[in-house]
UniProtKB/TrEMBL annotation:
Protein name, per record: ATP-dependent DNA ligase
Keyword Ligase: yes
Species of origin: Streptomyces hoynatensis
PANTHER family registered for this protein in UniProt: BIFUNCTIONAL NON-HOMOLOGOUS END JOINING PROTEIN LIGD (PTHR42705:SF2)
Pfam families, alphabetized: LigD_Prim-Pol
Domain DNA ligase D polymerase: 26-278
InterPro entries: LigD_pol_dom, NHEJ_LigD
UniProt keywords, alphabetically: Ligase
Lineage, broadest ranks: Bacteria, Bacillati, Actinomycetota, Actinomycetes, Kitasatosporales
UniProt region (Disordered), positions on chain: 276-295
GO MF annotations, alphabetized: ligase activity
Length: 295
């Protein structure tokens, strides 16, 4: 197994030639993607407890989701005790540098993070909406709903940034001045219900799956302290090496076919060259705005 040096840390990598996606994308290509893009990934991971969806044999093999620290974690990888939803604490990874990022992605993982940081558990510094289309609705319908939400959030002084989910839909994220996860959840739910009332043929805010066909479900639940969202720029365990990739509002507004926002690993170098880090404001505390009604 090859041994590499990453910023002075020696890492043993494994099975680099192994195909981990049906299109033949190898584990080595996956690791190269993460190692090459630490500059945009690390601000999204830093100070946030990490949950992992592991798919070592590809998305068609066994998938398992874990918040616990994996066996064999090197002592130099940061681990924090974080609150558990049922009480007490548990140990979770916190990825803060490139060696740790390369080490954890050698496990072949999706990266998932909450809306709060380890120093302030339960205090959200971002708001999230997960727009999930129920067939035959597609991401094109999500884009229409995203435009409505963007304007409505702006009316409350909040700036929304969009990314693909890396699956079928869109995520909207807003930087916040820290506020309780309960308050963020309440606001997000109220806005989802308002959208459903304004666009009843297009939007559903209820969890019931029987209500979703042909509509966009606005999932507001990921603002709860116990929930996580696919981290920006993570690869997803899907039929192809899809990326949860930031997109411009021009791309959202002009999306006429789902394939226009079908963003894959191979697309990312050109996108980053063209746009840079579209989500950089999320990590800039100067961009944070108060949640309406909070102090």
């Amino acid at each position: 197994m090859p041994v590499v040096s990453v910023e002075g840390r020696r890492l043993t990598l494994s099975n680099l030639e192994k195909a981990v996606y049906p299109d033949g994308t190898t584990k080595g290509e996956v690791l190269h993607y993460y190692a090459s893009n630490g500059a945009v990934l690390l601000p999204e991971l830093r100070d946030r407890p990490l949950s992992l969806l592991r798919y070592p044999d590809g998305p068609e093999g066994e998938l398992f989701f874990t918040k616990r620290v994996p066996p064999g974690t090197p002592e130099w990888v940061t681990v924090h005790e974080v609150p558990r939803s049922g009480g007490g604490t548990m140990r979770q990874l916190v990825i803060g540098d490139l060696p740790a990022l390369v080490w954890v992605t050698n496990l072949v993982v999706e990266l998932h993070t909450p809306q709060w940081r380890v120093g302030t558990p339960g205090l959200a510094d971002r708001l999230v909406f997960d727009l999930d289309p129920g067939e035959p609705a597609t991401i094109v319908d999500c884009c229409e709903v995203a435009g409505w939400l963007r304007e409505r959030l702006a009316a409350d002084g909040l700036t929304a940034y969009a990314k693909t989910s890396g699956s079928k839909g869109l995520h909207l994220l807003c930087p916040l001045r820290p506020v309780s996860s309960e308050a963020a959840s309440g606001y997000a739910k109220a806005l989802a219900l308002e959208a459903a009332a304004a666009m009843p043929r297009r939007v559903v805010a209820a969890m019931a799956r029987r209500l979703r066909p042909g509509k966009v479900f606005i999932d507001h639940s990921q603002n709860a302290a116990r929930k996580t969202t696919a981290t920006p720029y993570t690869l997803r365990a899907r039929h192809a090496p899809m990326v949860s990739a930031p997109v411009t509002w021009d791309e959202v507004e002009n999306c006429a076919e789902p394939r226009q926002l079908d963003i894959r690993l191979g697309d990312m170098p050109a996108r980053l060259d063209a746009h840079g880090d579209l989500l950089a404001p999320l990590a800039d505390p100067r961009q944070a705005r108060p949640l309406p009604g909070s102090r």
